[in-house]
Structure formats: C-alpha cells, structure tokens
Amino acid sequence: MALGLIGKKLGTNRIFNPDGDVIPVTVIEAGPCLVTQVKDEKKDRYSAVQLGFDEAKVKNVSKALQGHFRKASGSPRRVLREFRVNSEDLSSLSPGQQVTVSMFRPGDRVDVTGFSKGRGFSGPIKRHGFHGFPGSHGTHEYFRHGGSVGSRFPQGTLRGHRMAGQYGDEKTTVQNLQIVDVKEAQNLLVVKGAVPGARNGYLVIRPAKRQSRGKSQSKTA
Description:
Helices cover 11% and strands 38% of the residues. The chain has four helices and twelve strands; from the N terminus they run βββαβαββββαββββα. It has a six-stranded antiparallel beta barrel. A four-stranded antiparallel beta sheet has the order 5-4-3-6. A two-stranded antiparallel sheet has the order 8-9. 20% of the residues are buried.
C-alpha cells in the first residue's frame, strides 16, 4: 500500500546511537489522519484515498467543506491530501477511519514533501550560488552583481537566464530518509536528516519510491 500520512514539522534535534555517534534528526507530528473520502475506479476512474489532518474550527471552514466532513463523520480538518492506492487496498479503508503513525516502523525509508522556506526577492549570489566579483583590483559597486545579461547577438536576454528574483517557498521532496524512532502514543516520527520547510509547516510522508544503495544499506544489512 502506497498510503502515507500528513504531518507537521516540530523541529530538529540530535540523538546518540549505541556506538556514541551523533545523529541529526527531525521530529514530525504525523497524524492521526481522518479518511475523508475514498475514490474507486468505477466512479472516479482511479483509486485514491483523501486524508485530513489538524482539526479546524467550524467557523473557519466553508459550508461545502462542512458537508464534506459530515459525510465522513468527522470534524473539519485544515489540510486535505490525496494518496493513490491500489484498488485491492480500498476494501480496508472507509470514510471516518483513522490512519495513525503505526503504519511505519523504525528503519523504514520515507519520502517527505513540503514547501521550502521562503527567502523573498534574492540576488543571484544567494539564489543561484554565483561567486561574485573580486573584492579589489578596480571593482567598484559591482561586488554582488550577476554579470552580463545580454549580448550583441542574439539581441536581448535569453530565456531561462539566471537572475535575481523570488527564491524559496517551492514544493520540495527529500527522498529516502530513514525513520529512527516511532512514538505511537505521541503520534511522532523521528526521521534522520532534514526535511523541507519551517517549523510548524505541513508535510506529506510517503513510503520511499527508491531505496538507497551503498553505505546506508550495508550498515543495516
């Protein structure tokens, strides 16, 4: 089953393994998620499950969504996400059911999707990693510029040229992160490494599509 969870980034920390090595981790509040809708191939032409996360006040939800949650026999949720599943797995899911963090185990690999931190309008050095100009040898008021943006031929600025502009606040996925610990009582996932977004940002956690090769697998084998 490719079903995942919706979560919220709580922050970063570090833990120690039995060998005394430091492991940087991110703590995620994952679920419980409410099954708000089940779609099958007969009615909707594809199989999917819609999950809701983070309870919301009724006054902050539209009348249409209030009716949608009423059909699922649940309270309104702030975030709704859809997960594609196999048609065989739909039989075990129904509206109103709760999906919890118990679906994951320590050692599992997951892909985490979220929105990166917004950096606003940024220059080419911060946005694209340009080196900038020398700090001496005649450089004057041109230290952090991007250089030439055009030429005599072809005339004008070429499409896709890297320049200053909006940076960050983009949908980003970090693949193949390892789950270090699962705390079912607190609905927490402890994931090795960093995940996209700022604190309290919403995330989507799915089973990893591709397993890593090399050192990480050789240690666990």
